[in-house]
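=== RUN LOG ===
request id: a7f3
mode: sequence -> structure
chains: 1
length: 525
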Amino acid sequence: MSQMRWFVRGDIDGFFGLALDNLVQLLVLSELCRTVLGFPEALVYGRILPGAAVSLLVGNLFYAWQAMRLARSTGRQDVCALPYGINTVSLFAHVFLVMLPAKLAAEAAGAPDPAQVAWYAGLVACFGSGAIELLGSTVSERIRSSTPRAALLSTLAGIALTFIAIGFLFRAYARPIIGLGTLAIILLVYFGRVRFRGGLPGGLVAIALGTCFAWLTGLAPSGSTPPGPTFHPPVPVLGALVDAFAGGYWATYFSVILPMGLFATMGSIENIESARAAGDEYPAGISLAVNGVGTLAACAFGSCFPTTLYIGHPGWKALGARAGYSVLNGAFMTLICLTGTVQWIAWAVPIDAGMAIVLWIGIVMGAQAFQATPRAHAPAVVVGLLPSLAAWGVYMAKSGLHAAGMGLPGGPPFSADLLASFLRADLWMDGALRLEQGFILSSVLLAAATVGVIERRFRQAALWCLAGAVLSAVGLIHSYRWTASDAVLSLTPAWPWTIGYAVMAACFALAPWVTFRVDDASGGH
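=== RESULT ===
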């Protein structure tokens, strides 16, 4: 058999999808840094984006090499590299739960440069996330092998369907000419399994068509013409990192840094399992370790934002992407970060032009959770989806409150009084907020326990529930506190939920003595 090549036709489609996903993060990152945090452009384009470029290049090149190594060792030509980029959840968490509070506290204390204080806090948070990911790589294979596949994949499916697919579906229907037109192209090529005459990649056709529609309908170009590109080489900021640790931000924001690092680690493990389910068996330890190294590299060169193994490997693989799409993505992201051309891309090519590709990824991830697990485990997959649905619902509720001015400067603060208001509308927001805190871990626990029950491994189900009791007792799940603008994880014991999980564990542990097996489907009715 011939060896897998570095670049194949499918890498072009994969590149457009992954590059669009990464580009969205960079656009959001730069916008939040400039508007919410008030960072000067010199900091955003001279330090943060070049630091992100270092991490993106390191990770993308490694995972491309890893894919080629796996292909050559197995003699296969269909190996797809693990997708990699900036961690979306951590991006928002670091901005709104670390850097913005640090900036506001610095302003209240009369600090001469609140933006620098916020940047220092972000550097510490980024370092902490990378360190946790690196340490987690030493036990990642044990976690992956002992957790049912339904638990890992249902968690990813929940995130894909809510935080990825539904958001872009809303956007597609808000701008139907672009959204539905490009969606039709994606459905034709990737579900209808057809190709355009002339060999044009479907992803390229979709983005080109979406861009044309955007210009024709006046959606593009967006804003004023950006300034010309300027080269900003990455520069180490080790001195600033030392000053940041000396400022005590690690202790102040530990309640955010620890759970975000753990969630990023667990998410990466789930994505490695997703790749394994799609046929590409990557070792969890080294894959996770390089992810942690990428985050630490970002921090060392000035970025406040961790990287992660991306959701969506089965989607990229189904597009025909192999190793080359990762190389192209790393090179492209590096180029636009070091030259500041992010502004030009946002001006000419709106996100809407490629949102159908991202929607496709969400659909594929949702389908994989059912297709790559035993049919009998389908109920466990559904159970695993529920915490993500709850977290997304809470996100929508919070966004609505923010849109109404609550939690913003000059507006009423978030407080426990909101719970009574929601309850009058029969919305049990306290339960939703409890599920939101550590929802990735809750999803894994509930789905894994359900698999244990389905397979009548009641002791195993009880152990998963005991794990939930422990996590509740230390405050990593179901524990929150109010801030002026949010309800965030508090890392304080959530005793009622500890007891609840313990009761579940007791029920499952006693099941062999208080129940009897019913194999006839009608026997229990």
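=== NOTES ===
The longest helix spans residues 41-74.
The first strand starts at residue 84 and ends at 86.
=== END ===
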